[in-house]
TrEMBL record:
Every AMMECR1 domain range: 1-191
Coiled coil: none
Family matches, as PROSITE patterns: AMMECR1
Superkingdom of source: Eukaryota
Protein name per its UniProtKB record: AMMECR1 domain-containing protein
Family matches, as Pfam families: AMMECR1
């Protein structure tokens, strides 16, 4: 598969965030405006070199890259409810990852995917009959060292499922879509 994520995509996200925080005009993108489902992820590097998540939000709806990266660079940096907004002082300690999602396929069942290859998006029915969704990008299962079953259990909890998780429930109530991600992560390189 040809790589579609470029350094320009990642550096554009940094420039968008910096321009916003400095109250300056948005930078102009210098790459094709193709539509992709996408995620923007921010990590902060600690003194010992470890990366800690600072924000990760995206869209499964294909978005033109110019507007999609601009939008989700800011949303993931400033509005991820799990974290305080990123500040200008943090920029030298951050990495940004752009994930462009491809090859969506509805799986045969909830275990029809490969760890390290596929991201997974599940749709499931709550105990009250309401439909919910949750997703993990491909790298999450590897980073967490989860089995497929552990990843599914975690996704159900991420989607606020409060019931007992059984094999029977998973077979009956989960529709899983697998996808692949092309990802590039870098620190800010300046101008």
């Amino acid at each position: 598969m040809t790589s579609v994520v470029t350094e320009e995509h990642v550096q554009f996200c940094f420039k968008v965030l910096i321009a916003h925080l400095e109250k300056k005009p948005d930078p102009k993108p210098n790459f094709p405006n193709d539509p992709y489902p996408l995620f923007v992820t921010w990590h902060k590097k600690t003194r010992d070199g470890e990366l800690h998540l600072r924000g990760c939000i995206g869209s499964f709806t294909p978005l033109a890259l110019h507007g999609g990266l601009r939008k989700y660079a800011l949303i993931s940096a400033l509005q991820d409810r799990r974290f305080s907004p990123i500040t200008l002082e943090e920029i030298p300690h951050l990495t940004c990852a752009v994930s462009l999602l491809t090859n969506f396929e509805v799986a045969k069942d909830y275990l029809d995917w490969e760890i390290g290859k596929h991201g997974i998006w599940i749709e499931f029915i709550q105990l009250n009959g309401q439909k919910e969704t949750a997703t993990y990008l491909p790298e999450v299962m590897v980073e967490q060292q989860w089995t497929k079953e552990e990843a599914i259990q975690s996704l159900l909890r991420k989607g606020h499922f409060a019931g007992q998780i059984t094999k029977e429930y998973c077979q009956k109530a989960i529709v899983l879509t697998r996808y692949q991600s092309q990802k590039l992560e870098q620190p800010y390189k300046g101008d």
